[in-house]
Amino acid sequence: MRAHLGDQLVVESPATGAARRDGEIVGLHHEDGTPPYDVRWSDTDEVTLVFPGPDAHIHHLEHEHSGAVREPLPDTHEAESMFTAPRSARAANPGDIGRRVGIERRRQGLSRVEAARRAMMSPDYLAYLEEQPSDPSLATLIRLADALGTTVAALRGGGMDLPPGQGHALLHPQLRNLAPEECRTLLSTHGVGRVAMSASDGRPVVVPVNYEIVDDAIVFRTAPGSVAAAAAGTEVAFEVDHVDDAMSQGWSVLAVGPASVVTEPEAVRKLTQHAHTTPWAGGERETWVSIRPTSLTGRRITPADR
Asked: Taking the mean position of all CA atoms in its chain, how far away is CA 160?
């Protein structure tokens, strides 16, 4: 007996052959699709571990999701779920969960193959989850969260309205300074950071911005006359960080340097053309501000044994 994730386990009456109970297979314990299975029963919606007996059989479902067709499982040692539509035929249109899974996977530096191995699913199925709107079962989310070092609530976006850092402090934390090269790596190429400066009335202000890294400069778009635009012509601080609530650890990088408006037309054109994202705040934000760090420092909190 071999199965895919999503196949149906049907338990029949020994006397009549009629179905007595059925459920969706939401978890596999062996890569070749052999028992036991985690089954979500249709009558109770509960998930239990099942070792199918002689009165049970697998109903292999032919699913079609945006042109992706799952083929019957061949009698070889394979991963459990295969979505075989050519990648070019699948227009990437991830749902919210898929986006979060992809972001966490890349944040952990995992390939799809390695992440799928850790989550006990096939790379093609993980690609489908990341690229197409989907509603994976709780069992699938639990395995993904465990593989990515996060929580089911985080993958579902449950903590979106909560500030990060509400996890308990580590018992024996280690706080270490980061070398400039590691700071540059963590800044990466783009993301969301915070600009700290003095407002026109002299009061300190911190503004979140979508930023890019271009030729070792931190650049962001804003609107003329905005609070962020007031950074030009002054020395500012720019901070970016990541907090892992599930593991109670994280890092932060702080850059300090002069800010200026990018005015050269060709430079502005290239920045706009190669920007990874448009500003999340929307509206007309065509003024590019560049920060050239004269100081770059960072720190990381981890368990003491790492």
From this structure: 13
